[in-house]
Write a structure and sequence with these properties.
The chain is mostly helical. It has one domain (2-54). 50% of the residues lie in helices and 7% in strands. It is built from two helices and two strands. Helix 1 links the parallel strand 1 and strand 2 (26-27). The longest helix is centred in the last third of the chain and has 19 residues, at 36-54. The protein is flat, with a radius of gyration of 13 Å. The model has no long low-confidence stretch (mean pLDDT 93).
């Protein structure tokens, strides 16, 4: 998981570590220095993406 500002870095690191297809959940940058309500909203978006990508298939 990371922010869109570091999406390319995450992909490069995953490839360098031998996991080029590693799924990464990306949220809008920044996470720090913003209103707590904005952080909560970004957390909800991330949680939904995590469940969609990695959660159980019902």
């Amino acid at each position: 998981m990371g922010t869109d500002a570091f999406e390319r870095l995450a992909a490069l690191q995953a490839k360098a570590m031998g996991h080029p297809d590693l799924p990464v959940v990306i949220v809008e940058h920044p996470l720090g220095g913003i209103d707590p309500d904005e952080v909560r909203e970004k957390a909800k978006v991330a949680a939904r993406a995590i469940v969609e990508r990695f959660g159980p298939k019902l």
